[in-house]
Amino acid sequence: MYSLAKPFLFAFDAETAHGLGLKAIEAAYRSGLNPLLARKPAPLAVEAFGIQFPNPVGLAAGLDKNGAYVDALASLGFGFIEVGTTTPRPQAGNPKPRMFRIPEHEAVINRLGFNNEGVDALVRNVERAKFTGVLGINIGRNKDTPNERATDDYLECLGKVYARASYVTVNISSPNTQGLRGLQEEGTFAPFVARLREEQERLASRHRARKPMLVKLAPDLSPQAMDGIAEVLLAANVDGVICTNTTVSRTAIANHRRAKESGGLSGRPLLEKSTAVLRGMHQRLGGRVPLVGVGGILSGADAREKMRAGARLVQFYTGMIYRGPTLVGECVEALRGEAAKR
C-alpha cells in the first residue's frame, strides 16, 4: 500500500509529507486498515537494559516528536517506539524550509531544531495512548538555553517523563541546536552525565521503579573523543547508548545540489559512518553497555550489519520515508535469520 501512497507524498515538500504520512497512518489505525500497511512480525524477543522487547526493531525519535501517534505507529509491528525529542518549553524550531529529501541517495537533510510542543504536551499525549509496550522518550534542551544551564533542562524533562517512559534517551548529539554537541566534549560530558545519573537514581527510589537512561551520540566523533566518552559511560554505569544521530558530513553527497544545505544528513549515506561509531563504541565498552544501532537502515541487510557491529537493538526513521512500514517486518526477519546462525 505504501508503494501507492509514496508518489503522492513525494509530490509535497518533505516536512508537509511528514505530517501527511503520520495522519495517514493514524487514519489507517483508527479504521482498522493498518494490516494493509504492514503485518506484525512474529515475536523475536530480546532483552536489553533490563527490558524485554517483543522484537529488536524500533522506531527512532524524530518521527513523532510530541508522542501524538504512539498507538498508530505501534500497530505497524515495531518492537519499541521512541518519541521526541521533547524540550521543557514549546519551541517552533528553525525557519522553514528545513527538511529536504535526496531520493538519488535515499537520504534526508533536516535542520528542524527540536520543534515540539513541550514536555507537558508530550506527557499528556502519552498518557492518553493505549500502548502498553516499550516506549522510549527522547529529551533535549531548549534552543535558548546555554550549555552552562543545559543540565537544568534535561533534569526537568527527565523528571516529567520518568513515570511514563520505559526508558529515557538523553539527546546531546543533534546538529540542529547550536552548541548542543559541545555536551559530548571532554570536561563537560562527565559532570553532565553524573548529574543525570544522580537524578535517575533519585527518581527510581521515588517511583520505586528504575527506568534505564540511554545517551544518544553523534556519528562525527573522532577516535579520541570516543575513548573519552567510553570512559565516562563506564564510570557512570550508563544503561545504554544509541549510535548514532545524523551527520554533518557531506562527503557521500558532495556533488549533489543539496549538499550545501545545513542540518543533519540521514539515510543511506549515514550507514557506513554510523556503523563505524557503533563498532568503535562496542569495542571500547567491551560489551558491558547495550548499544542501539541507528543510521542508514533501509533493508534487512542493513539491520544485520548493525547487529554484527555490536548492536543489541536497531532503530530507523528515514527508512520509513523510502521503504515504508514493511521495512519493520523485513528487518525482524533478517535479524531472526542472524540469530539462528549464532
Strand tally: 13
The CATH homologous superfamily name equals Aldolase class I
As residue ranges, the low-confidence spans are: none
Order of helices and strands: HHEEEHEEEHEHEHEHEEHEHEHH
Structure annotation, total helices: 11
State the CATH class.
Answer: Alpha Beta
What summary fits the major beta sheet? Answer: 8 strands, parallel, barrel
Question: Describe it for me?
Answer:
This protein has 342 residues and is an alpha/beta fold. The chain is built from 11 helices and 13 strands. The chain has a single domain, classed as TIM Barrel. The protein has an 8-stranded parallel barrel, surrounded by 4 helices. It has a 3-stranded antiparallel β-sheet with strand order 5-6-11. The chain is globular and about 50 Å long. The mean pLDDT is 96.
Brief sketch in words of this structure:
This protein has 342 residues and is α/β, with parallel strands linked by helices. Helix content is 39%, strand content 16%.
Write a concise keyword list for the protein shown above.
342 residues, alpha/beta, TIM Barrel, 8-stranded parallel β-barrel, 3-stranded antiparallel sheet, 11 helices, globular
Topology:
Elements lengths: L1 H9 L3 H17 L15 E3 L2 E3 L3 E3 L10 H5 L5 E7 L12 E4 L4 E4 L8 H10 L5 E6 L10 H12 L5 E5 L17 H19 L5 E5 L5 H14 L3 E4 L20 E4 L3 H15 L5 E4 L5 H9 L4 E4 L1 H6 L2 H16 L1
Parallel strand pairs: 3-4, 3-13, 4-7, 7-8, 8-9, 9-10, 10-12, 12-13
Antiparallel strand pairs: 1-2, 5-6, 6-11
